[in-house]
Write a structure and sequence with these properties.
heterodimer, A: 288 residues, 2 strands, globular, B: ABC transporter involved in vitamin B12 uptake, BtuC
């Protein structure tokens, strides 16, 4: 039972990790990025080529390449594709409709290009694939590293948002972009920055996830979906809430699979999500 | 009525001739063409039904695959007990009922929440049915029909469904119900304050469009030897229908049909190719930046001033006078697109 719970916590940490960047993008920049998972898979691919390439380096080193690339690409996407839509939209609903369509189109285009270049085969590599004992239960070290990575990232993001001037500006934009602009926050600049930072977080998450889950050019959509479920369950722009919602989802999924039927894990996932959306449409961790 | 028929005599004549020609099509062409037209009719019906609710009220639904799959499963279960027409009706009714329940519980969600919810719901139904099928050791279900030339039967049925759906959508758009739907799309609070019972309107129309989707699912599936949950609840349906409707223009009753025909032809050309995904994605981007209302307003702009009598005269060999409406309007339409491109890139 303890092992099941621990498995759920590790899985949940991964869900939280995957959702962090998306929630930053949607929370601060108000852009629901459905091509998010593609950048995650991009990070995974770069890690894969770092490990399996000529020099066989440590996958952690791939971050020096993937993070700047993801940051720059997302900044450009915001600047050139999203900003015209933001300017054109009369309200948030109209913006959401446009953004969902464009980022979904981007998702198809990036995935198509990835398929053409790298084919759809599953890839994976072995990194820290050994067991460690945690309070008597045996777990894989790479999963533990990914979990710790999720905690560190969430904590760092939380501290930045809570205790810096930049963080106050970002939080103000989450609450009310118009009022934030009136208070002297350069909303456009910070939106682009937050959007780009979200993309960079996706690349980091992709690297960490790729150490223990094999992936292919088409698995980006699954990660986008998972991230979306967790982010909406947590509530828009809630950083620590994202991790908590991820943990909740992971634990419930593992417990349900263990106690009821392993064939039901996906159904439990979506059931929990639809239930929460019906009861608290604004998310679990938002203040009313 | 007569006066109306006289006023639209060209429209009535051409469309009834077209309908007869379409109905006779399978007796004059190959199986490949019939299959293509089955696909077109199914997509036209789905896209029109989708736009009937989601296009007007702007509740973007990704639950098309859910209703489609419910129709398929209902048919697969009841068609061994009931005669075929009754089984098809049962499928449509099942879609209607599921949508009624879903609609009553979820239509208070708006915007992105509604989109994501409908998507999650489709997956939930898919997974539950999959689990139930595995439990009962019936992962695949077989479809038995004793109709010879089943593709002709399917084609004629789908043709009737598609034409009726477009006609119904066009008719409703001119009634009080149509205005109510559009009012909800413009501003729901205002719509409620003007005395529209928004909940009933939304739930009823959502369920009606779901019934059409379930019916189309049931009819198209008659061709399959067997089905399983991942065939029935394939998400691709939700997305393709959405793109077809938005490409054609959900603001006009005939817009989604145009988009559906184009998309089916595109898919037929790129069948099985990796580039279909890329083309689909680019379609999305083009729709949002260049054609916010879909192709329909563009076609209308080209069409204004189109004179059928003059067209006939030209066909008989008369020379086209300079600056005649049709090519000029086309040029104006292209100009509008270029102007929009310019406006977009001049940040």
């Amino acid at each position: 039972m303890f092992e099941v719970l621990l498995g759920g916590v590790l899985l949940g940490g991964m869900y939280g990790l995957v959702a962090l960047g998306l929630n930053l993008q949607y929370g601060v920049s108000r852009i629901l990025n459905l091509s998010y998972g593609e950048f995650l898979i991009g990070g995974a691919f770069i890690a894969f080529f770092t490990v399996m390439g000529r020099w066989q380096l440590n996958p952690l080193l791939s971050l020096f390449l993937s993070v700047p690339i993801a940051f720059a690409m997302n900044w450009l996407i915001y600047r050139w594709l999203m900003l015209p839509l933001v300017r054109r939209a009369p309200d948030q609903d109209a913006l959401d409709a446009d953004v969902v369509l464009v980022t979904f189109g981007l998702f198809f285009v990036i995935q198509g290009l990835a398929l053409v270049n790298w084919s759809g085969e599953l890839r994976g590599y072995s990194f820290l694939a050994q067991g460690v004992d945690v309070l008597g239960a045996r777990i894989a070290l790479n999963r533990l590293v990914a979990f710790l990575g999720a905690c560190v990232l969430a904590l760092a993001l939380f501290l930045i948002l809570r205790h810096t001037r930049l963080g106050s500006a970002l939080r103000a934009m989450t609450i009310d972009p118009v009022a934030a602009e009136l208070m002297g926050v350069d909303v456009r600049k910070f939106s682009a920055m937050a959007f780009a930072a979200g993309g960079a977080l996706a690349a980091v998450a992709g690297m960490l996830v790729s150490t223990f889950i094999s992936f292919s050019a088409t698995s980006g959509g699954d990660y986008t979906l998972k991230a979306l479920l967790v982010a909406i369950m947590a509530g828009v722009g809630r950083v620590t809430g994202t991790l908590a919602a991820g943990l909740l989802l992971g634990v419930v999924e593992q417990l349900g699979g263990h106690l009821i039927d392993p064939g039901l894990t996906l159904a439990i996932n979506f059931g929990l999500f639809t239930l929460i959306l019906l009861l608290r449409p604004t998310g679990l961790f938002t203040r009313a | 009525m007569l006066e109306w028929a006289f006023r639209y005599r060209w429209l009535c004549g051409v469309s009834s001739l077209g309908a007869i020609a379409l109905a006779l099509l399978p007796f004059a062409t190959s199986t490949y063409v019939v299959q293509l037209f089955i696909s077109i009719c199914a997509n036209v019906a789905l896209a029109t039904a989708w736009a009937f609710f989601s296009g007007t009220t702007r509740y973007i639904s990704l639950a098309t695959a859910a209703f489609f799959g419910v129709g398929i499963y209902t048919l697969a279960i009841v068609h061994v007990h009931l005669p075929l027409p009754l089984a098809l009706l049962a499928a449509a009714f099942a879609g209607f009922l599921v949508a009624l329940v879903v609609g009553l519980s979820t239509l208070r969600l708006r915007g992105v929440y509604f989109v994501v919810f409908t998507f999650g719901l489709t997956e939930l139904i898919h997974q539950l049915i999959n689990w139930w099928a595995v439990k009962n050791r019936a992962v695949t279900r077989y479809i038995f029909t004793d109709i010879s030339h089943i593709e002709v039967y399917i084609y004629e049925t789908l043709l009737v469904i598609a034409l009726l759906t477009v006609a119904a959508s066009w008719y409703v758009s001119r009634t009080r119900l149509g205005y109510a739907l559009r009012a909800i799309g413009e501003d729901e609070t205002v719509a409620r304050h003007t005395g529209i019972d928004t909940t009933s309107v939304k739930v009823f129309c959502f369920a009606a469009s779901a019934a059409v989707m379930a019916l189309v699912g049931a009819v198209t599936t008659l061709q399959q030897p067997y089905i399983d949950a991942s065939i029935a609840f394939n998400n691709a349906w939700s997305f393709e229908v959405l793109i077809a409707a938005l490409l054609g223009g959900p603001g006009r009753p005939w817009g989604p049909a145009v988009g559906a025909i184009l998309l089916v032809l595109l898919k037929d050309q790129l069948a099985g190719s990796l580039y279909f995904g890329i083309a689909l994605g680019l379609c999305f981007v083009v729709i949002v930046y260049l054609l916010p209302g879909g192709l329909a307003p563009l076609i209308e702009r080209c069409h204004q001033g189109f004179d059928a009598t003059a067209m006939l005269r030209v066909l008989r060999g008369a020379k086209l006078p300079d600056g005649s409406p049709w090519p000029r309007r086309l040029k104006l339409g292209l100009k509008a697109v270029i102007a929009r491109l310019n406006a977009f890139w001049r940040l």
